[in-house]
Amino acid sequence: MGSNGSCCIPGGKRCTCDIQPAELKRVTTGALEGMVRLPGGTFLMGTNDPVGFPADGEGPIREVSLDPFYMDEASVTNAQFARFIEATKYKTDADNFGFSYVFHLFIDRAIKGRLMMMGRQLRGLEWWYHVEGSDWSHPDGPGSNLAGRMDHPVVHVSWRDARAYCAWAGKRLPTEAETEYAARGGLVQKRFVWGDELTPDGKHKCNIWQGDFPKTNTAEDGYIGTAPAKSFEPNGYGLYNMAGNVWEWAFDRWSPDFHLKGPRVNPVGPPTGDRRVTRGGSYLCHDSYCNRYRVAARTSNTPDSSSGNTGFRCVRD
After folding, report:
1. Using an 8 Å Cβ cutoff, are 52 and 294 in contact?
2. What does the DSSP 8-state code read for residue 231?
3. Which residues contact 167 (CB under 8 A, 6 or more apart)?
4. Could you give the CA distance from residue 161 to residue 125 in angstroms, rounded to a whole number?
């Protein structure tokens, strides 16, 4: 593996605005259609896998106990988010800031040339561009739309946007522990959602990068960008795309070491901090740089940041 940086999530603090309460509020009002009931109980969270990123706090392996909960069987789609926008007239952070981050392969060539001249590439992650006019309904920037993508995960949504949608739906964001428990699908300490082999019998099991990152994606799994939210086989709990496709926001604030002494029953991250956890990896993750499609992998971003490969799903109690 190359750098231990996260190739997949651009961003960084754009305002000092993580003012949401630290305590997780349980909710039991949201509709259960399209959700799966997970039994909870005790599971082994984390990993000691040598191919991981110890600095991210992936380990050590520890016993964690969770109450039962319901989880969306798939990421929130563009169609679902459109209904939220129509009902509430909500403005996303990308709308309010006037820009989001778009991966270079999806930007019109003429626009890309102008952006390069303007210095709109993200320093250190030059494959990401600051594109004015990109948002959830214009995922590739001005002139793009959602045609053919209504069943794909909504992207260019911040943690705050995801939380607003959850509140409207009578649900909440999952904790990091709930996300990992759900992703494991009943398997114990496997590297991936489906087992220990990335492509068992040569079969692609999720939407990640194939080829030479960040230049050429051969799309051997069938997709260059996002895939429909219900692509590939669901895991043992009936959940789709718990690895790859899009990063998904968790409720927890980020820390690489809070869990070393933190709670083990329905754990939530630290009470303070300016970043929020994301899980699952995306269509841009590749073993040469960022193999964070592993089930125990984790990273973070500021709660007002958005990009073309980050979405979310909801849970309720």
Report:
1. yes
2. -
3. none
4. 24
Per-residue confidence in pLDDT tens, the chain, 317 aa: 233 345 567 766 455 455 555 578 999 999 999 999 999 999 999 999 999 899 999 999 999 999 999 999 999 999 999 999 999 999 999 999 999 999 999 999 889 999 999 999 999 999 999 999 999 999 999 999 999 999 999 999 999 999 999 999 999 999 999 999 999 999 999 999 999 999 999 999 999 999 999 999 999 999 999 999 999 999 999 999 999 999 999 999 999 999 999 999 999 999 999 999 999 999 999 988 889 999 999 999 999 999 999 999 999 99
Domains of the chain: 35-90+152-316 (3.90.1580.10)
Tokens 């593996």 found at: 1
Cα distance between residue 25 and residue 33, in whole Å: 21
Question: Please, are residues 209 and 217 in contact by the beta-carbon 8 Å criterion?
Answer: yes
pTM above 0.85, yes or no: yes
The number of helix segments (H) and strand segments (E) in the chain equals 5, 14
DSSP annotation of 117: H
Please state, as a whole number, how many other Cβ atoms lie within 10 Å of the Cβ of residue 91.
12
How far is 230 from 239, CA to CA, in rounded Å? 9
Inter-residue contact 192 to 198 (CB < 8 Å): yes
What is the chain's length? 317
Nearest to 76 by CA among 11, 170, 8, 155: 155
For the sheet containing 99-103, what is the strand order?
99-103, 125-132, 121-122
Peptide bond into 214 cis (omega under 30): yes
